[in-house]
Every structure is written in C-alpha cells, then in structure tokens.
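I had to read the description of the data format several times before I understood it. For illustration, here is how one protein appears when written out as sequence plus structure tokens:
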Amino acid sequence: MARIVKIMIGLTAAFLLFMIVDDYINDYKNDYQAELTDTKSKQGEEVVVEIPKDASAKEIAEILHDNGLIKYERAFVKRLQDSQYRGKLQSGTFKLHKGMNTLEMMEVMSKEDENSKIVKQLVIPEGYSVDMIAEKCQEEGICSKTDFINAVKSVTTNDFEYLAEVPSGVGVRYKLEGYLFPATYDITKNTTAVDLVRMMLNAFEAYYTAEMKAQAMEKGLTSFEVLTMASMIEREAKLDEERPKIASVLYNRMNQEMLLQVDSTVLYAVTDGRYDIEELTIDDLSFKSPYNTYVYAGLPAGPICNPGLACINAVLNPDDTNYLYYHIIDEEKGEHIFTETLDDHYQTMIGGTDTNGDGKADIEPGESFEKNNVEDDVWSNQSD
C-alpha cells in the first residue's frame, strides 16, 4: 500500500511538473509569437534608448532587451529581417515605450534622429592650445570661447583618473592642456562644449596606450611629463624626421642640467596660449612665468599645446644623439641644423644667410647673436 502511495505521489508530482513546463512553453510561444507578429499597441512606460553608430541588428536587440522593451532578442532580429525596416534602423537617441509592438519600435528607429544627425566636423590640428581650440569652436559656431574654457575647467580627476598625474600648485594654466587629443570630431545639434571636451579626452585615452605608459615609466617620466615634452616638440618641429632629434636635444640638455630655452614656451606664456605674435623680444625672454624655459630650469609648468601621436612617440623613442643645439636653416620648410658643441653651433650660425649685410648669420626671433649670450641657448624656432 505504501508503495502505491509513493507511486501516486510521484505521478502527481510529474504531472504537475509537466503542467508547469507546458504552461511555460506555451507562455514562451505566445510571448515570442507576439513579439514576432503582434501589431497591437498599449500604454507603457516611456524609455529613452541610445543606438550607437553602425550598431548591428543583434546589438540593437540587446539594447532593447536591456531596457525592458523586448523579451526575445531573436524574435526582434527575425522580424526586422522580414520587415520593410531591414537595413534602415538609424543611430541616435529615440523615445520608445514598453507598450509598443516591435514593428512600431522599428518604425521609430528607422527615422533619423535630427538632434543626433552630424551637422559638421571639427578638425583640431596638432599643436593647438586650449585657447586656440576655444577660438576655433567659436569661429565655427559650435560654442562660445567662454563655454569651451568653462567646460575645460569643469573636468576633474573623478571624470578621468589619468588626470591625477597633473601636479597641483605649480602654476599649470589648464589642467587639460596636452590631453585634448587633436583629431576630427563629429558635431551634432546636441553637441555641447562639455560633450566636445569629453570626446577629446576619450580620444586621448584611446590613443595613449598601455605600451606608451610603460615606455614613459621606463624613462622615469609621467604621462604628464611626456605630454609636456611632446607639446614643445609639436610647436618647434615641422618635419617628421626632426621630431626625434629635437626630443634628443631636450633629453641631452636636461641630463646636463642646462636651461632648455625653447622659444615656444615663452610664446605660450606671453600670448596666454594664443601664439598670435611672430617674434619675441629680448624682454620677452625674461618674462616671469613657470612656462618660460629661459628663466626656469627643467620642463615648463605643463604642456604648451595639445600634441599629436608623432610628437608623443618622438619623446618615447628619441634619436640617440649628442646634440645640444639646433637652429633654423630653411624657414619655409621648417628645416633645422643640429650641432653638439657651442662652437659648432656658433660656426653654423656664422655660415648662415646674411641678409642685413653685417657679415653675420641672421638670428631667429628671441635669439641673441652675442657669443657670450648664447652659451645656454637652444637657438630654437617657432613652427606655428
């Protein structure tokens, strides 16, 4: 008798389990079929979704599922493939609601979001400073100079951890100078100054790789110091092959505890980062600023512009030279001559072009021709 009871209990349990599974399967079939074919709509909570550019049907289905708009990603993908909306879903921000059928969602997402439509592209050249970028943004009607500068100042290390390397209390003009990666950026109607700044910082984070960070550490440099050196090279060099040479000059002078005396650092200081003058005066060279490498030893307070990858790589992979000096020999091409000793440097200056008839080589803006005044002079040239 007990055995019969156990059998009956087992059969009952099996039956109940079968009914539960059967109900689940039927519910699954009904829900799946509804998402695959339903054309009815009902009230539901509004949900805003962001569809990234070039998202696949599967990725879009995943976004909808994660936002509670659909249950079955496969049903959405299959219905999309069999619908008139196949290949027509757009990127952008869309307002959907949980009572929509999947066909209605596809209809909404097939219409290009006007606010997310690219209206122009902003090209930020290598060597532009924060102030120059702000000016360009205003000229192109993207945002005002003030809005861009305020956006730059609003970013903290909580937003981007790598900014923690920027030293505090040393007269750094802008914490983000050097980190606003020069590139081409898509601008939409919705793009704000804050959005743009964050795009630039995200681009830097993407391009400044872990390998680069490791190379910097091997040289005993922080990423901030790498960007500071790269920014000087960016403003000094026009020719690709000269960037690693100029990097070697900076390293060699620092190793010998010589003043760097890079004219571009003075220009950054006296023009407030605008680089809107062509020549420096003798008085400018004594301008009191932590960026002035004629006055203060070592690197300037921080980057003097936002450098590109070529100059960053030049700092990480400098030429192996003994050069301590360089000066311009072709203004149009931006070509320099590099020398190891002061005497050689002086001789190349004497052998330069004489346009004023005094029997001496022409001197670049910011340079003193007196031999007793050039002992620690890099004889650099602005390349802006």
In short: The first strand starts at residue 46 and ends at 51. The CA atoms of residues 122 and 185 lie 5 Å apart.
